[in-house]
Every structure is written in structure tokens, then in C-alpha cells.
Amino acid sequence: MNASPSTPGFEPGPASGTDTGPGARPGPRMTVVVLTRNHVRQVVDTVARLTALPGHPQVIVADNGSSDSTVSLLASLFPQVRIVQSLGDHGMAGFNRAFAVAATDYVACCDDSTWFAPGALAQATQLLDDHPDVAVLNARVVGNDEREIHPACLMLNATSPGGEGLPGPALTGFMAGACIFRASVFRALGGYEERLSHGGAEELAALDVLSAGHAIVYCEAALAHREPLCRWFTRAQHCTLARNSAWVAWMRLPLRDALAATGHALAVFARQRSLGPAGFALLRGAFWTLRRRRVAPAHVVQLMRQVRRAERHVRAGIPAMAEKYDQSGQRAW
Questions:
Q1: pTM of the entire structure?
Q2: Of the candidates 192, 226, 260, which is a domain's last residue?
Q3: Secondary structure string (H, E, C) spanning the chain
Q4: What is the pLDDT of residues 207-256, one digit of tens each?
């Protein structure tokens, strides 16, 4: 049976599935993990595309407690694909369970509407082999027309603080649903934080990756396609994203940045007419965040500030880009 339940905790798995002994035949270097919940049509299409890639990468589906036919249909159509099931919706932390069983050096992450192009994973593997200081490659995500680049990719690339000595523009963040991770680094971080799994988990992970001395890079060669989706955030989702961003700031950033993030969160709560309930939820998590407070190194903080200033300029200077962001300042993906 290829469907296996897993517990909410993150348990590190083997760091590599490659046999490097004398005369040994190298094993797979890359696993692809697809995160899904109740999107049976999209995930079947995505897994079909991934299993047909040259080199036949290992594919793991991390199912976040789907109540539709996702698990049974995938198990029937793709017996070679491993399915890691959760009993409930763990959001981004659903990736943790898949990383725990992945047995390769690198893990490519995507959601159920995103898939990697032929050759992209091989190029990403080579880049990570050649640059051991790089922990995360952010893919170039395009729509049906390869000239239509995802707005989040445009923003990441436009606000890069540089990239000297790296295989692409350096980043201070990444898209959790379209990236390639060095598995050993992800495990060293302990995976995505469960309490931030519906917004902010990758923000915290990026700060910890940079603080540990690794780099995050935008990789043009790692091409991923995304099915066009129209997604509107609910009032609760707006508030959750703003609250979690403030929590991340209190955990990793200096006081001035934490206060600024809190002020932004309160402004979002007020715009969403949820100042009382959302403000109470923010305050309720204060002790939890302060217990985990570990301020990032000064150079990481400076990079974050530089990128945030650049983001404001980009949004103000490019109306088409500004339209991709909603009024609360949150990304529309």
C-alpha cells in the first residue's frame, strides 16, 4: 500500500538516497513533493505531468486530510507514487511529513496546480551540486504562456539585493509552492512551523535559512508551470496572514521591525472589520512568539529591510504589479 498516515510531528529522515561508494551506481537525487487538499482534478493532472518527466523523479503526495476521492484515485492511477496522509489540514506544515520520508539530497516542492517543466529538475540538481552554499532555489513560475511570469516571481526578482557569486539573484524569501530545497537544510530547520502553516511559515523558514549562513536564489532555469487560478482571500485569511507576519517579526526581527509589523497587522484587522477578534488572537500568541524569540543576525535584518523598501518602490512605480496585490498588502497567491 503506498498511502501511509503520518503523525503531526516532524521526524528527520535520511539526508540522501545516493550511494557514493566505490563503483556504486548513483541513485535518485531529487524527490518532488506535491501538497494537496480536496483538489482531486488538479492533483491528478499535476502528478501525471510529474511522473512523465524525463528521469522519472520520485514523487510524494502530501495529502492534508482530503475528504474527496484524492487518495483513493491517486493510489489507483499512480501505484508508483507514495502518498503521505494527514488526518487534518496542516497547511504548509504538510510538507514536513513528506520531507521526513524523502530519501534524496534535494526536494522540489509544489502545490497541486504547479508542476516542473522537463529538464528543470536536472538543472536545479546541477546548480545545487555546484553551489553548496545555496539552500533554496525559487522556481520561475509561468502560466500557459511562458512569457506570463507569476507576479510573485516578478516581485522577488525585481527586489533582489544582488547575487554576486551565486547562480542567480539572491532572495530573502521564496514561494513554498514552487521551490527546490536542500533536504538537509530543511530538516535542520525542523521543517515549517505548524502554527504558521496557513501563512508566514516560509517567511520564518527564509529568515532561519539566511541566519544559518545559506543562500536563497531565484533560478530562471528551474521552470515551473502553474494552472491559472482565481483566488480571493477571505476576511479571516487576510487577518491570519497579517497576524502571522507580525508573529514572525517578534520571533526573528528587532523591536522596531516587530512594532512596525504589529502596526501593519492592526491596520489590516481594522480594514477587515475584525480588529477585536483578530487583535485578541494576535495578543494570545504573544507569549508563544516571545519564547521563540531569536533575533536574526544584523546582515540578515539589513537585507530584509532593503528588500521591503524595494517592494514599496516597485508597487508604487509599476501599476500593473500593484494590481496583483490586494489592499491589505498581501500576495494574491
A1: 0.86
A2: 226
A3: CCEEECCCCCCCCCCCCCCCCCCCCCCCCEEEEEEECCCHHHHHHHHHHHHCCCCCCEEEEEECCCCCCHHHHHHHHCCCCEEEECCCCCHHHHHHHHHHHCCCCEEEEEECCEEECCCHHHHHHHHHHHCCCEEEEEEEEECCCCCCECHHHHHHHHCCCCCCCCCCCEECCCCCCEEEEEHHHHHHHCCCCHHHCCCCHHHHHHHHHHHCCCEEEEEEEEEEEECCCCCCCCHHHHHHHHHHHHHHHHHHCCHHHHHHHHHHHHHHHHHCCCHHHHHHHHHHCHHHHHHCCCCCCHHHHHHHHHHHHHHHHHHHHCHHHHCCECCCCCECC
A4: 999 999 999 999 999 999 998 765 667 889 999 999 999 999 999 999 99
Q: What is the CATH number of the domain that holds 192?
A: 3.90.550.10
Based on the fold, state whether residues 57 and 182 are members of the same structural domain: yes
Range of the domain at 130: 28-226
Tell me: do 222 and 241 sit in the same domain.
no
Position 8 in a domain: no
